[in-house]
Amino acid sequence: MPQLRLALAQVNARVGDLDGNAEIALASCREAAARDAHLVVLPEMMLTGYPIEDLAYRASFIAASQQAVDDLASRLDADGLGDLVVVVGHLARAKHIPDKLGTPKNAPTNSASVIHNGTVVTRYDKHHLPNYGVFDEFRHFVSGDETQVVQIGGIDVAIAICEDIWQDGPSAAADAAEAGLLVVLNGSPFEAAKDDERLDLCARRARDGDCALAYVNLVGGQDELVFDGDSLVVDSAGELVARAAQFEPELLVVDLDLPAATAPMPDHDTMFEGLRVERTVVSAEPFAPYEPQEPTVAERWDDLGERYQAIVLGLRDYVAKNGFTSVLMGLSGGIDSTLVGAIAVDALGPAHVFGVSNPSEWSSEHSRSDAAELAERTGLRLDTIPIAPIFDAYQEALKLDGLAEENLQARIRAVIWMGLSNQHGHLVLACGNKSELATGYSTIYGDAVGGYAPIKDVPKTLVWELARWRNAWAGERGEMPPIPENTITKPPSAELRPGQLDTDSLPPYDLLDAVLDAYVERDLGSAEVIAEGFDAAIVEKVVTLVDKAEYKRRQYPPGPKISKRNFGRDRRVPITNLWREDL
Amino acid sequence: MPQLRLALAQVNARVGDLDGNAEIALASCREAAARDAHLVVLPEMMLTGYPIEDLAYRASFIAASQQAVDDLASRLDADGLGDLVVVVGHLARAKHIPDKLGTPKNAPTNSASVIHNGTVVTRYDKHHLPNYGVFDEFRHFVSGDETQVVQIGGIDVAIAICEDIWQDGPSAAADAAEAGLLVVLNGSPFEAAKDDERLDLCARRARDGDCALAYVNLVGGQDELVFDGDSLVVDSAGELVARAAQFEPELLVVDLDLPAATAPMPDHDTMFEGLRVERTVVSAEPFAPYEPQEPTVAERWDDLGERYQAIVLGLRDYVAKNGFTSVLMGLSGGIDSTLVGAIAVDALGPAHVFGVSNPSEWSSEHSRSDAAELAERTGLRLDTIPIAPIFDAYQEALKLDGLAEENLQARIRAVIWMGLSNQHGHLVLACGNKSELATGYSTIYGDAVGGYAPIKDVPKTLVWELARWRNAWAGERGEMPPIPENTITKPPSAELRPGQLDTDSLPPYDLLDAVLDAYVERDLGSAEVIAEGFDAAIVEKVVTLVDKAEYKRRQYPPGPKISKRNFGRDRRVPITNLWREDL
Which of B102, B420, B576 shows the shortest C-beta gap to A130? Predict the structure, then answer.
């Protein structure tokens, strides 16, 4: 059987940075050529970054993206890499523009171009456009209606983009076209356990199509999304051949023995399930035989580790891609801000992390000492600014009491953080967790301020688990565990009035998080949640809290999605909403 | 020709309030019956409110909505209104559930049920699902594949829902089905001059289908959207017969002479352009002849008036539907907060509007006197709380300067407003305009705080125009113009440092707004904007400001859309975005 050395370029692209992304593509191709690869595949929309949202409509951006592909082809050729076949994802303009209201302005497509000998030899446009969960691709793209099969070294290679293999269709087309390899370009965001789902899918599609399948994914953070890499290759029996690391860039090089292209059946030349099959021959002769290398299969993070690393990467990239070099957060000594502090140190290094302790009259001694211990363990910088004189100045004028007085303290702290942010250029981090965000257990314009919210998709019970995981991971490596033990074990409190505990206002967190999982992540109605065995009064309380807190969530900063359904792109509900579940 | 008395119920539904909306439907039907109507048509999704966003997935909500239709049918019959034919929009579940990844959970449909004699005699599911601009209907609904024709009083009546008549298709099906009347249920949000566009469309579809067309729209505010009503009827020649008021509920009753149903052509019975035509006979005999009434055509607001009234309605409904009774805003004496004050008084009455003046060291004398004059002219309540002692307490600890010091003042004010809001239950209004929001010329967690932002879709030049319009409108009615003349004529300033003017940081507003119109509303690239005759340096400055301010816009409160492209549902761009237009 003909041989093929395939390189999957798992890269960290930046949305809108056409020049920088082209440099990354070029560097990947140079490395692939140095490692004697025949074919390089780069991820979905790699030249533009992904998702670009409504930037898709901008004529200037579409034109620049198409130019970037041509420039990449020329530069590869000028560098003596014209022989290398390169498949790269980018934004383009539809070949046929539909005359239909609602066609996205300027008819953008989510495309993959095949580059060889200094030119684009063919282009595939994504056929299936996901428009659910975090995706809005019907809004942004025109759907392609052709399947592309490219003969490389005497092997037929079919192309698909991401959703195309989740839906039935193009892999069936690859089968019909009798391709030996299906390459799939992806911008597939992380969520817990998605790697397992991906491998199963790829194996199934490979078996269905009776062809090897190579899956290459982006890596890196983009606003709410974290692309986890996890690029992989399976053979035509669905067996895993090679797999790249999670959460870091990698050039995954794999040697494959693939069936030689055969003359396709006549009816396969034209149409299959509504898709026209278009064939391009780059090279019909097999490549010269060579000694294959052993493929690599990277080790996986465990279930907690992958979520922790997703958050670290999401934060690091949000900071770097938005031009910041340092972060600032309030450190109360509580578990949420302490975990965020540890994550920030992992993402940016301790010299770039600034904590501020703002004790009030109601702050316990352990609040201060626990925050100080975090600083000592991690090396982050901690400053202390008491709020009493400012609190008194407000109260002289306002004389607030009750909840208004509690919120005042949280807002004074926020003004201090934002002042320091404006003065010194730090990005402020919001430290709220998903359980708080769900129930509205936070002060808007108080502890909710910030440019990024690392743990907003982490339920409180998972906050504790991640803290323990992080300390255990340090232990395994003989390092100092960053998180003070007392911070993990003490009962949670907002410390906005004497003796206050979270459980004064909320059910115990293990119970709360179980109800939230049913109501928010699984979208069950109250009656269905109760049918799972929860107390009706608690369900009613939690559901009411969630429904009433939507206005706070709308003004909350973005943070990395790690669950099946995050607040933000995944769960979009009205603020004005009088629907209340009857019990 | 057979006669038909048709009633279009332009009603203000509330999202999620099934019971309340059913009461509104029932009241409309009672009034229609009292006025001897044969057929009542209620708007799109009227029983659930619109848009319901991801509430569409909730099985309990779908079931409750379907139950609400059945209950409405029973109650109408019990009230002796069984003879009346009622068409009402609601959420339902697809009759055939597609087995396809990405099918919305629980297969919701955007449906219209026909009620007669206590039962639902047939149901139409919206066929064309808009997924552009403010709409996400591919995300939320399964598309219907049948056209419904219902014979009422010997007249064939076809049904369509909103987008169905904007796209080619179902009105053609109505034509093929030889209907005498097409009734269209709508949830069509306001934007400037949309009423003209709507009338043209309805006239064109009526002529195309050779049938009269009755268009009924929701009225009222729902988060960012304002439904303006503007229900109308055109005859088969496309001539306007009757039209309801803008921005208020109305039962529009119209007498029509319509062609008698004929036996349809055999090929029209089954399929037309992929849609199956389903026929239901409610009553084949013409109604007894009667003396028709003169139809009414409501007066239209002019171009400025309709935008002003849209904002008033949006604010009034956001406040009421979210359970508030009063609003609070900072009153600086500047034109933005003054216009918001006047709008709030129009929406809620002066007793429900609370202004706070927070003078600083840099506040001019006219700031205080202009705010006081607004209070005097409108009757709103004005309190004054100077910020100097609080500012000093912060600066004792922080020693900020420059922009950080300017922002500190804005944030101190915000904490005061939020404290008063928490203490007294007022909804805080953010007073920023669209030009500020576009350029980031505001302090996040400062003047940007609030639950609702009435003028966020109003460019600064339009702020002045609306202020003058409002004063002139008062003049026409012999009332006191609410807005002090000096507030309109003085140069705009944020007053955060001595002698500061907006033009220190921004181009003159007439120029700025023209560039923003090209870049934001029309989505042109920089080169295209410059090609329209603008100075390159100014375009580059404005474009850079807009691109960098996305993070602020994400945390800004919702406000009513009045333009073709608002910040929010209409314009969705990444925060992390390195695309910069080359010049």
Answer: B102
Token couple for B416: 């005061």
Which residue type occupies B532?
Answer: E
| pLDDT score of B266 | 47
Nearest-Cα distance to chain B for A86, in Å, is 24
pLDDT band at A473 (very low <50, low <70, confident <90, very high): very high
Q: How far is CA A41 from CA A35, A484, B375, in A?
A: 14, 45, 66
- Average pLDDT of every residue of chain A: 94
* Residues in chain B within 8 Å Cβ distance of A12: none
Catalytic status, residue A431: no
User: Does the beta-carbon distance from B20 to A54 stay under 8 Å?
Assistant: no
pLDDT in the model for residue B263: 65
Answer yes or no: do B415 and A420 touch at CB < 8 A: no
DSSP code of residue B266: G
Q: What one-character DSSP code corresponds to residue B189?
A: B
Instruction: From chain A, pick out residues whose CB is under 8 angstroms from the CB of B451.
Output: 551
Residue A580: the pLDDT is 87
> Whose CA is closest to A438, among A452, A414, A457?
A457
Rounded CA gap, A135 and A161, in Å?
14
Tokens of B120: 């639902």
pLDDT on residue B573: 97
Nearest to B223 among A58, A60, A576 (CB): A576
Structure token digits, residue B289: 């002849």
What are the b/e assignments for A454-481, b being 16+ CB within 10 Å? Answer: bbbbbbbbbbbbbbebbbebbeeeeeeb
Nearest chain B residue to A572, by CA: B54
State the alpha helices, DSSP H only, in B259-334: 303-321
**Are the C-beta atoms of B226 and B12 separated by less than 8 Å?**
no
Task: Report the 10 Å Cβ neighbour count for B485.
Answer: 13
- Give the DSSP H/E element, type plus range, for residue B219: strand B219-222
Distance of CA A491 to the CA centre of its chain: 32
Q: What is the pTM of this model?
A: 0.96
Q: Could you tell me if A72 and A45 are in contact, meaning their C-beta atoms sit under 8 angstroms apart?
A: no
Helices and strands, number each (H, E), in chain B: 18, 20
**Which amino acid makes up residue B326?**
S
Q: In whole angstroms, what is the distance from residue A69 CA to residue A64 CA?
A: 9
Asked about A44 being catalytic, the answer comes back as yes
Q: What is the pLDDT of residue A267?
A: 46
Facing B419 at nearest CB: one of A398, A525, A557? A398
Please give the average pLDDT of every successive group of 10 residues along chain B, which has 583 residues. 97 98 98 98 98 97 97 98 98 91 94 98 95 97 93 95 82 71 96 90 91 97 98 97 98 97 59 74 96 96 97 98 98 96 98 96 83 97 97 97 96 98 98 98 97 98 98 97 96 84 91 97 94 96 96 98 96 95 67
Contact residues, chain A, for B558 at CB < 8 Å: 554, 575
pLDDT tens-place string over residues A49-70? 999 999 999 999 999 999 999 9
| Per-residue confidence (pLDDT) for residue A266, from 0 to 100 | 47
pLDDT digits (tens, 9 = 90+) for A144-167: 988 899 999 999 999 999 998 888
What is residue B169's predicted lDDT score, i.e. its pLDDT? 64
What does the alpha-carbon distance between residue A14 and residue A55 come to, in Å, rounded to a whole number? 13
ipTM value: 0.95
A126 given a catalytic annotation: yes
| HEC readout, A72-125 | HHHHHHHCCCCCCEEEEEEEEECCCCCCCCCCCCCCEEEEEEEEECCEEEEEEE
pLDDT of residue A262: 82
For helices B365-378 and B335-348, the axis angle rounded to 10 degrees is 20
Residue A495, CA distances (Å) to A44, A362, A370, A431 in order: 47, 6, 14, 15
